[in-house]
């Protein structure tokens, strides 16, 4: 039994504060992603978009959140009520806890203590991410099945088979990156890129495969078959209302934010500032960490924009095309990339 005196209470307090900050920031970013998506869609369709609630429509996400919060909550009579509530809760939980291993910036000094801007620096960070992401499909399946609606069940089955299929290609694409970095720690991967070159230069094919699979994992167009309104009325959350529906919708945007953060961490240097030697500017102290955080967020913002740009540009796949791409195109490409990477590493080490 661990004695209470041996616990570093200040470290525990630091982590709790960081958890609260990351959770609140993720929710705020997800909220304003809805605003950004509507504005981007309006621009591409030559419309104005939200412009009534607050200046430039900036309060529209608050209005939408309030609408969901105060709407009547309906639970179908023939649904499994416990699982009906568990589904959106699980979807939101898995979306949020993925951020635990992401290094948001370098260490900072506060009150004489070195504070890490990473909730948990575990040496199997990538495995943790994949473990949590694989649990996210249960939120979709449980919600679709417990609704006792045939359209919701069909959408949930689509979502489950899609996530399982594209997780394979995503995992295989990362093996090539791990062969180069020789570590599963996300912080070490970032530090290696800061000392050398970003992984996108070594593994462009792995990035393309990983990003394509991220679109499928987030159920984003052109992989939004679980939410194909023209075929399934609405999707796996058809019977949901109020904040249960809000949890499903917010989970998708949180997943988009976290997926962008992981893409940046693995392939684009994380919080590395381009054309700046961080080691030579260590005297900047906390300002260097703040600049790294801002740079990290700008990179994430670019990929969030890319998610949205693709949604309003590329049409939805048919389901057979979606499965064909995953099993017959992406998995063989990821395997070939892994073999080529291994051959190159062996040749260079001779």
TrEMBL record:
<feature type="transmembrane region" description="Helical">
    <location>
        <begin position="16"/>
        <end position="35"/>
    </location>
</feature>
<dbReference type="GO" id="GO:0009060">
    <property type="term" value="P:aerobic respiration"/>
</dbReference>
<dbReference type="GO" id="GO:0003954">
    <property type="term" value="F:NADH dehydrogenase activity"/>
</dbReference>
<dbReference type="InterPro" id="IPR018086">
    <property type="entry name" value="NADH_UbQ_OxRdtase_su1_CS"/>
</dbReference>
<comment type="function">
    <text>NDH-1 shuttles electrons from NADH, via FMN and iron-sulfur (Fe-S) centers, to quinones in the respiratory chain. The immediate electron acceptor for the enzyme in this species is believed to be ubiquinone. Couples the redox reaction to proton translocation (for every two electrons transferred, four hydrogen ions are translocated across the cytoplasmic membrane), and thus conserves the redox energy in a proton gradient. This subunit may bind ubiquinone.</text>
</comment>
<keyword id="KW-0520">NAD</keyword>
<keyword id="KW-0812">Transmembrane</keyword>
<feature type="transmembrane region" description="Helical">
    <location>
        <begin position="288"/>
        <end position="310"/>
    </location>
</feature>
<dbReference type="GO" id="GO:0048038">
    <property type="term" value="F:quinone binding"/>
</dbReference>
<feature type="transmembrane region" description="Helical">
    <location>
        <begin position="82"/>
        <end position="102"/>
    </location>
</feature>
<dbReference type="GO" id="GO:0005886">
    <property type="term" value="C:plasma membrane"/>
</dbReference>
<comment type="subunit">
    <text>NDH-1 is composed of 14 different subunits. Subunits NuoA, H, J, K, L, M, N constitute the membrane sector of the complex.</text>
</comment>
<dbReference type="GO" id="GO:0016655">
    <property type="term" value="F:oxidoreductase activity, acting on NAD(P)H, quinone or similar compound as acceptor"/>
</dbReference>
<keyword id="KW-0830">Ubiquinone</keyword>
<keyword id="KW-1133">Transmembrane helix</keyword>
<comment type="similarity">
    <text>Belongs to the complex I subunit 1 family.</text>
</comment>
<feature type="transmembrane region" description="Helical">
    <location>
        <begin position="330"/>
        <end position="348"/>
    </location>
</feature>
<keyword id="KW-1003">Cell membrane</keyword>
<feature type="transmembrane region" description="Helical">
    <location>
        <begin position="122"/>
        <end position="142"/>
    </location>
</feature>
<keyword id="KW-0874">Quinone</keyword>
<keyword id="KW-1278">Translocase</keyword>
<feature type="transmembrane region" description="Helical">
    <location>
        <begin position="245"/>
        <end position="268"/>
    </location>
</feature>
<feature type="transmembrane region" description="Helical">
    <location>
        <begin position="200"/>
        <end position="218"/>
    </location>
</feature>
<keyword id="KW-0472">Membrane</keyword>
<dbReference type="InterPro" id="IPR001694">
    <property type="entry name" value="NADH_UbQ_OxRdtase_su1/FPO"/>
</dbReference>
<dbReference type="Pfam" id="PF00146">
    <property type="entry name" value="NADHdh"/>
</dbReference>
<protein>
    <recommendedName>
        <fullName>NADH-quinone oxidoreductase subunit H</fullName>
        <ecNumber>7.1.1.-</ecNumber>
    </recommendedName>
</protein>
<feature type="transmembrane region" description="Helical">
    <location>
        <begin position="163"/>
        <end position="180"/>
    </location>
</feature>
